[in-house]
Amino acid sequence: MSIITAYSTKTLPEAVADLKAQAGRCTPCLVLCFASSKYDPFTLSREMQAAFPGASVVGCSTAGEIVGDKMLTDSVVAMFLDAEVVADVAVAVLQDVRGGDGVGQAFAEFERHFQAPVSSLDIQKYIGLILVDGLSGAEEGLMEKIGDRTDIFFVGGSAGDDLKFKATHVLANGKAYTNAAVLVLLQAKKGFEILKTQSFKSTGKCLLATQADENLRKVVQFNHKPALEAYAEALGVPSAEAATLFMQYPLGLMAGKEPFVRSPQRVEDGCMYFYCKIKQGMELQVLQATDIVADTRAALEAKKAEMGHVSGVIDFHCILRTLQLRNEHRCAEYGAIFAGIPAVGFSTYGEEYLGHINQTSTMLLFK
Amino acid sequence: MAGQIKRMLDSIIDQRAKGNPILMQTTKTKLTLKGLDPDKFNSASPDDPAVVEKVKAIAAELGTHV
Fold first, then answer.
1. Mean pLDDT, residues A71-100 taken together
2. Which of A289, A311, A334 is where one domain is finished?
3. Residue partners of A338: CB distance under 8 A and separation at least 6
4. Mean pLDDT of chain A
5. Tens digit of pLDDT for each residue in B11-59?
6. Do residues A53 and A191 share a domain?
């Protein structure tokens, strides 16, 4: 017994009892819990920690849930990992992520737990998870500071709230938090791999952010022209039409051949706002959407072949991908990609891998 | 003079990666996310003082010396 997944659509507190029953005889040391915003996060976190007192219980609110081969809404999903998978685990909560830098304090907690500097930990044995308040706007800074301090990979997502954009929560220690992040650092007993997949190809068109307000996630000018005008020109369409094509044609910051997607959110006075910070001077490629299901299936199959055996997957899956799948009526097809693998995940307001990204699935796969 | 920025970026990558090819790639990605794509600089790139200062600041953030 190593990784078990469960889900419930019952209300609280019955939902927790339902999840515990599905966990069976598993004695987890780590429980991940992702829940629709219909669940009161404070009650859920408290009840889940009480149900699994010997485990580190972490989670967040979502914009949709993933479990097994299902894409759900209005549910709570959970993954139970025992000592066959997780040799050791530590959790740290960073509060006031908008205003402060709690990464140093979190790493000090990790060092106390593991009795070693984080920088000395083997990056092939240790892996981090990160869950962030999806309305904090703090993801980029957090990921940058984590990356400055360690080469251990932190993978994760931004909490959602079913597209209400009112309040998202991260859960840990039997509590629920806003304006916060939960960091988990674990030693994977049998190893792990990370998969970052996004379904786009480059159009070959480049946009240089010649004027940007990074903190507002706003670009005023691309190529010394009003942002929307330059974007529309790159697509070869009128500006009004360009604003309707954001999901199909996001932008990508290229790291070699790998795009780190920046998704446009809205337009205001010719300026473009994104779901991700864009620094002034950054050169971005205009991307074009490809087939999410085919691409993700191919990427996961390739990773499975490389690993030999996958005992579980956590899928931090962008809500924009979920919306596209819903529009195309292909959620069942996407879920089927994970058939036979214990899988859990949620629709995020952003994904984390080396940085903050959009329209991507970042996955942690356990061997 | 030219090429100083490339030498500085290469040094940052070498210090962080210590020969590990995975860390070489992730360090390059971290630099790109910080706004400095190492692939955009070569031995003929002019030594823009503003960029040089930016590289020094990033080096410090990454715990390296240039």
1. 96
2. A289
3. A66, A68, A69, A300, A313, A315
4. 97
5. 999 999 999 999 999 999 999 999 999 999 999 999 999 999 999 999 9
6. yes
Q: A162 and A86, same structural domain? A: yes
In chain B, residues with a C-beta closer than 8 Å to the C-beta of A282 are 35
Q: What is the mean pLDDT of the segment spanning A83-97?
A: 97
Percent of residues in chain B assigned helix, strand, coil, to nearest 5: 65, 5, 30
Please judge whether A253 and B39 are an interchain contact, meaning their C-beta atoms are less than 8 angstroms apart. no
Question: How far does the CA of residue B64 sit from the closest CA of chain A (Å)?
Answer: 10
Statement to judge: residues A182 and A210 lie in one domain: no
Q: What is the pLDDT of residue A99?
A: 86
Residues of A in contact with B30 (CB under 8 A): 144, 147-148, 354-355
Asked if pLDDT for residue A29 goes beyond 80, the answer is yes
ipTM over cut 0.90: yes
- Are the Cβ atoms of B37 and A279 closer than 8 angstroms? no
- CB atoms B33 and A281 under 8 Å: no
> Which value, to the nearest 10 degrees, does the dihedral of the CA atoms of residues A214, A158, A343, A290 take?
-40
Are the beta carbons of A65 and A7 closer than 8 angstroms?
yes
Cβ within 8 Å of residue A238, ≥6 positions away: A232
Beta carbons of A151 and B28 less than 8 Å apart: no
Contacts of B33 in chain A (CB under 8 A): 144, 147, 253, 255, 260, 354-355
Which of A148, A214, A260 is best to mutate for the B interface (most B CBs within 10 A)? A148
Residue A113 domain boundaries:
3-196+294-366
User: Please, which pLDDT band fits residue A351 given cuts at 50, 70 and 90?
Assistant: very high
